[in-house]
Amino acid sequence: LLAAMLVFTAANAIISFSAFWASRNTVAEPPAAGTGTSTASTAAARSLWEAYDAHLAEAKYVDLTHAIEPGMPLWDGFSQPKFGAAVARVATPGFIAEGATYGYAAQGFVAGAVSLATDQI
């Protein structure tokens, strides 16, 4: 949960900063001849790259993601995830019967199902 909150906060900060930086760039140069790009979109794209180069290019990033797997540590209020084959909820005539699992032989692919108890990801 903490990792999800940190990622959400960082994403909001980057979006807010991008909007702030774009609003400060009021002088736009014309696009190169024949590009078909509007002056406004050229200026916005340029300002985002300038912001990245000035503030984010040298940043150190930490990957806070983790694998969802049996036995993973969870808050005591959540049950362990359950894994299995995906089951058709409804029949599709000529393709799959209701309650049948998807498989290579009949459908050309295998689908998995994961049940993960959580308040949010």
Brief summary of the model shown:
The chain contains three helices and two strands. With 121 residues, it is mainly α.
Question: What is the secondary structure topology, with strand pairs?
Answer:
Layout: H1 2-24, H2 39-56, E1 82-85, H3 104-107, E2 112-115
User: How many domains?
Assistant: 2
Question: What structural category do the secondary elements indicate?
Answer: mainly alpha
Radius of gyration: 24 Å
Strand order of the largest sheet: 1-2
| Overall spatial form | flat
**Global mean pLDDT:** 76
Task: Characterise the protein shown here.
With 121 residues, the protein is mostly helical. The chain folds into 2 domains: 2-56, no CATH class; 69-121, no CATH class. Helix content is 37%, strand content 7%. The protein has a two-stranded antiparallel sheet with strand order 1-2. The radius of gyration is 24 Å and the shape is flat. It starts with a helix and ends in a 6-residue tail after the last strand.
Features:
2 domains; mainly alpha; signal
